[in-house]
Design brief:
The chain has about 260 residues and is of the alpha/beta class. The chain is about 40% helix and about 15% strand. It has 7 helices and 7 strands, in the order βαβαβαβαβαβαβα. It has a 7-stranded parallel beta sheet, with helices on both faces. α2 links the parallel β2 (about 30-35) and β3 (about 60-65). Mean pLDDT is about 85; it is low at about 245-255.
Length: about 260
């Protein structure tokens, strides 16, 4: 018996790397899926739906969800297809960063205003359709914790982090939980300086989202789970690089 048998899940951003991994993991655990793109380029969701169905899973493509009007349509379609809604996963797609000095008013309106407003209103509407015990999980990169450069995307990531925390408090009485997962490096070619000595290729993020979405974490609300192999608390880069190269050198006072 799957850990999500009988659960109906909407995954927005299912065309992002993390979103695809979560969709496949949820399908294996028995969830009925409604998959929406994050509106970033050509959607690969039709192929994802076909792959899940070929393995006996239940999935449907419900279009994109960026603006509030998109969310309204996607939520209605999800409930119509599956008879209700128990889980929402929002996986923020990686958006281009030009830097504050180059971004225009139009860039900020498109990246921050449209997406953040759509998400906030969309999640509010989703909660109204969810029963007690429902779960909302936001999936962001670790850039949301400590952005490396100012940009509209960095501002959006930070705002979604705070939206998740605020929603957890606001909806606690209704029994709908809000949690966030922050994904670290997922490129195998960039693992050389990571404490774990390897990148997460998606399975750990998907497993974390699965646990937060399931009833196994019914007392977990407002949490932030960082899946980065310890990168956020690593030692100095030069020492990590030495360890990765096999030298094992640690100078006194530099550990």
């Amino acid at each position: 018996m799957g850990r999500l048998n009988g659960k109906r899940a909407l995954i927005v951003g299912a065309d992002s790397p993390a979103g695809r991994d979560v969709a496949r993991r949820f399908a294996k655990e028995g969830a009925a899926l409604a998959l929406a793109s994050g509106g970033q380029g050509e959607s690969g969701i039709p192929d994802l739906v076909q792959g899940i169905r070929s393995l006996g899973g239940m999935a449907a493509d419900v279009g994109k969800a960026v603006r509030w009007s998109d969310w309204e349509r996607v939520l209605q379609q999800t409930v119509r297809l599956h008879g209700g809604l128990d889980i929402v996963v929002y996986s923020l797609p990686r958006l281009a960063e030009k830097g504050l000095e180059h971004e225009t008013v139009a860039d900020w309106q498109q990246i921050v205003h449209q997406r953040l407003t759509g998400l906030a209103l969309g999640l509010r509407a989703a909660v109204e359709k969810m029963p007690q015990g429902g779960s909302v999980v936001s999936v962001l990169t670790t850039d949301a914790l400590k952005p490396q450069a100012g940009s509209a995307f960095a501002a959006l990531s930070g705002a979604i982090r705070l939206l998740s925390a605020g929603s957890a408090a606001a909806n606690a009485a209704s029994g709908v939980r809000f949690n966030a997962v922050f994904a670290g490096e997922t490129s195998a070619s960039e693992h050389w300086n990571l404490p774990a000595g390897r990148a997460d290729l998606g399975e750990n993020v998907a497993n974390a989202v699965l646990l937060l979405a399931s009833e196994e974490s019914s007392y977990v609300n407002g949490s932030e789970w960082v899946i980065d192999g310890g990168n956020g608390v690593r030692a100095r880069r030069d020492i990590v690089a030495d360890r990765s190269s096999g030298s094992g050198r640690e100078e006194d006072g530099q550990a």
